[in-house]
Amino acid sequence: MNQYLAFLMVGLGGGLGAMGRHFSALIINRFWHQSFPLATFSINIAGSFLIGILTAWLLPKLGNDTLLKYLLITGFCGGYTTFSTFSIENLQLLQEGKIFTLILYVSSSIILGITFALLGLFVGRAIS
């Protein structure tokens, strides 16, 4: 596998995923005006569903080292939402019976994610 081509596929898929995320959010927010962040929620759930389909359907047929994996799973799903990767990794931990690791990963990701976002806000405000 040409690693440069794989790198380009991730970039192309990521760009398309990011544009898909933005377009999806524009459409959802056009019709949803409540406080619940439906656009982000819907995008994350749809991305999780898509990565599940692609993982179960594509990888068994083509293998783990295929350009379509880099384009669609790593690139598109990663650009559309990183929550999709988080979801499939946690599902794999559950299937492997690694419950402690799963709980640690979920809880620390949420707690540290929010904490570091808050820290980033403070740092950003301090340097501006």
Automatic annotation (TrEMBL):
Keyword Phosphoprotein in annotation: no
Entry binding sites for Na(+): 78, 81
Keyword entries, A-Z: Cell inner membrane, Cell membrane, Ion channel, Ion transport, Membrane, Metal-binding, Sodium, Transmembrane, Transmembrane helix, Transport
Membrane topology: Multi-pass membrane protein
Catalytic activity from the UniProt record: fluoride(in) = fluoride(out)
Major subcellular location class: membrane
Record localization: Cell membrane
Superkingdom in the source lineage: Bacteria
A family per Pfam: CRCB
The keyword Cell inner membrane belongs to this UniProt entry's keyword annotation: yes
Reported regulation of activity: Na(+) is not transported, but it plays an essential structural role and its presence is essential for fluoride channel function.
Transmembrane annotation, as ranges: 36-58, 70-88, 100-123
Function: Fluoride-specific ion channel. Important for reducing fluoride concentration in the cell, thus reducing its toxicity.
PANTHER family found in the cross-reference section: FLUORIDE EXPORT PROTEIN 1-RELATED (PTHR28259)
The family this protein is said to belong to: Belongs to the fluoride channel Fluc/FEX (TC 1.A.43) family.
Name of the protein this chain belongs to: Fluoride-specific ion channel FluC
Originating species: Wohlfahrtiimonas larvae
Lineage start: Bacteria, Pseudomonadati, Pseudomonadota, Gammaproteobacteria, Cardiobacteriales
